[in-house]
Amino acid sequence: MALFALQLKFTDPDRRMEVRPAHREYLAELYAAGKLHEAGPFADQSGALLIYDVADEAEVREIIAKDPYTTADVYEIVTLQEWKRTIPAT
After folding, report:
1. Cα separation values, 48 from 1, 42, 61, 78, Å
2. Which of 37, 41, 69, 87 fits 48 for a cystine, CB–CB 3.0-4.6 Å?
3. Beta-carbon-side half-sphere exposure of residue 27 (alpha carbons within 13 Å)
4. ∠ CA 77-53-18, rounded to 5°
5. Which DSSP string corresponds to the chain?
6. In angstroms, rounded to a whole number, what is the distance separating the alpha carbons of residues 43 and 86?
């Protein structure tokens, strides 16, 4: 398994709030399935950081494509990179 960090920037705050319940439900499902490690918005609400636990980049891109935020087009991807956790040691 690999960890991938997604940093995104919100582009449509009003639409985002409309879609947020569906987005959070989707994230809860991913978390329960062990596919989402952590997620949350930045304190200033400008964007968010999500860390996925997946087999590879293809899987994370598939997960992102199904997210209600993606289908509602309320953000742009700043970075999507494989992330190596060092603390705590795994």
Report:
1. 23, 5, 16, 10
2. 41
3. 18
4. 45
5. -EEEEEEEEES-HHHHHHHHHHHHHHHHHHHHTT-EEEEEE-TTSSEEEEEEEESSHHHHHHHHHHSHHHHHT-EEEEEEEEE---SS--
6. 24
Query: pTM above the 0.90 mark?
Result: yes
For 59-81, the pLDDT digits (tens) are: 999 999 999 999 999 999 999 99
- Amino acid occupying residue 54: V
Q: What gap in Å lies between CA 87 and CA 83, rounded to an integer?
A: 12
